[in-house]
Specification:
alpha/beta; Rossmann fold; 7-stranded mixed beta sheet; disordered N terminus; binds guanosine-5'-triphosphate; binds magnesium ion
Length: 226
């Protein structure tokens, strides 16, 4: 008889959750990126957070901190405007993808960036770091019509990080996902600190008010000694 499996502690609460959406014109390699990435890394062990949106989930350790990352694709051919908005609002970061072999897909990037910005602004959560620009199909050097410097230039004006990648083989894809995790993590940490500071200041103001109210109620001669 085999001994019963010991109850292992549930470590799901130690995982940081990240939702990333991949946007770009048809054919740039969004599905290839999501599929390649999620089949190469560990599939998530825990149940996904409730969502009506289809996504693929994996676990990855970024700087020794375990993360659960959901990736979803929302291209114009696979989703309506309303659905795309839903994907964007559910994500903490967007991967804006073009193909280095398609000028049209590159020129579309500003519009997609604007779409993400609009959704995030409506939610009061706009931060430019929430986007990473990816020039995919970097292996197709002979068919290149978008230069590396063109990609870098646009990324700089839009305030996003930039990579060229090869979704088919996974070249640079881990790096870009990790970098977005770090950016979102830094943002969350700063927000946490800001929240703690605001809480502390509110507590201080409350205490000050109680003290002042008490002083006002005192006899005038007593105030001199309080
Ligand atoms: N050479 C090369 N081909 C790629 C790369 N990534 C994707 N492809 C090819 O590009 C084609 C389109 O890729 P998809 O992943 O289906 O593109 P998509 O952006 O999901 O397209 P839609 O779902 O129609 O919006 C496929 O034939 C892929 O094999 C890459 O890095 N290098
Ligand atoms: Mg696709």
């Amino acid at each position: 008889m085999t001994s019963p499996t010991p109850n292992l502690p549930n470590e799901s609460h130690l995982l940081e959750d990240y939702n990333f959406v991949v946007l770009g014109l048809p054919g740039v390699g969004k599905s290839t990126f999501v599929t390649q990435f999620t089949t190469t890394h560990h599939p998530a062990q825990t149940s996904p957070p409730p969502s009506t949106l289809p996504h693929q989930q994996i676990q990855l350790s970024v700087d020794n901190q375990p993360c659960q990352i959901s990736l979803s694709e929302a291209g114009p051919s696979s989703s309506s405007v309303a659905l795309r908005k839903e994907y964007i609002s559910a994500s903490q970061a967007a991967i804006l993808m073009y193909s280095i072999t398609s000028k049209e897909s590159f020129e579309k990037i500003r519009e997609i960036w604007g779409e993400v910005r609009e959704v995030k602004e409506e939610m009061g959560m706009w931060e430019p770091f929430q986007m990473g620009l990816v020039g995919n199909k970097m292996d197709l050097e002979g068919e290149r019509v978008v230069g590396v410097h063109e990609g870098m230039g646009v990324a700089e004006t839009l305030g996003c990080a930039f990579w060229e990648a090869e979704a088919e083989t996974g070249r640079n894809t881990k790096e870009l996902v990790e970098e977005l995790v770090r950016k979102v993590r830094t943002y969350r940490d700063n927000e946490r600190i800001r929240y703690e500071q605001m809480k502390e200041e509110a507590e201080k103001a409350k205490k000050e008010k109680v003290k002042n109210d008490r002083r006002k109620k005192m006899m005038p001669w007593k105030r001199l000694f309080s």
